[in-house]
Amino acid sequence: MNDGSNTTWQPGRTAVRARVPVTLHRAGHRTADLVTFTDLPDRKEHMAVVVPGPRRTVPLVRLHSECLTGDVFGSARCDCGPQLEEALLRVAGEGGAVLYLRQEGRGIGLYNKLDAYVLQDRGNDTFEANRLLGRGEDERDYSAAAEMLRALGLTRVRLLTNNPDKARQLADLGIEVTETVPTGVYLTDENGRYLDAKARHAGHTLLVPDALPLASASRTEDLEVSVL
Ligand SMILES: Nc1nc2c(ncn2[C@@H]2O[C@H](COP(=O)(O)OP(=O)(O)OP(=O)(O)O)[C@@H](O)[C@H]2O)c(=O)[nH]1
Ligand SMILES: [Zn+2]
């Protein structure tokens, strides 16, 4: 199948490449489509988990930045794993999409993120650690996400996030964000300073939604949900 990688990328070129139905164990055994794309601006293998919802409602969308350590291994250093689970549960329940974006370590990559963890263990916060590595505090760019949403026909969205930069960037990229829906704040013994730095430094709004869906017990039994 041609993924368009031999052509020069232009805005609006991205299209759906394949839609593959799956059952999601981590989202109440609901079905969803795994969607891949052609002609993504950064040529990375981003993907979407899409669940059709009622036609008249604005779909719930999560832009989830890859976090191998949190999403896959369940590391308690961050809140990514429980946030991904929450997003899948919500989208499976009401329709919408989770875009899984290959932006590991806020765009600096996995190995650099682990180097940043070493610096954090020496007392630097998550943003200082990136700077000490000679990288930006947050290198994420959401052009690919906007293209994926356009290709999916989702140009008006309710965005599941506590990060105002995601909503700002999406709006600048021509996606109408009708509402920002707060995602859960998952406090562990290890991630307090990390969450605190996000709130103080990057303006994340760390509020707890009224009805936070419960993630699977096996992954949340050692988590508390708390307002910071
Ligand atoms: N560089 C770096 N990246 C981290 C660190 N901890 C988590 N990440 C990455 O941060 C990304 C998640 O971003 P966050 O800032 O936690 O949250 P967000 O996605 O901006 O905001 P929400 O939508 O509210 O979840 C993932 O790519 C993680 O791999 C860290 O200490 N250093
Ligand atoms: Zn994480």
From TrEMBL:
Entry note: cofactor: Binds 1 zinc ion per subunit.
CDD domains named among the record's database cross-references: GTP_cyclohydro2
Broadest EC class assigned to this enzyme: hydrolase
Binding residue positions for Zn(2+): 67, 78, 80
Domain GTP cyclohydrolase II as annotated: residue spans: 29-182
GO molecular function, one term: GTP cyclohydrolase II activity
Highest taxon listed in the record's lineage: Bacteria
Amino acids binding GTP: 62-66, 83, 104-106, 126, 161, 166
NCBIfam families: PRK00393.1 (NF001591)
Protein name, entry field: GTP cyclohydrolase-2
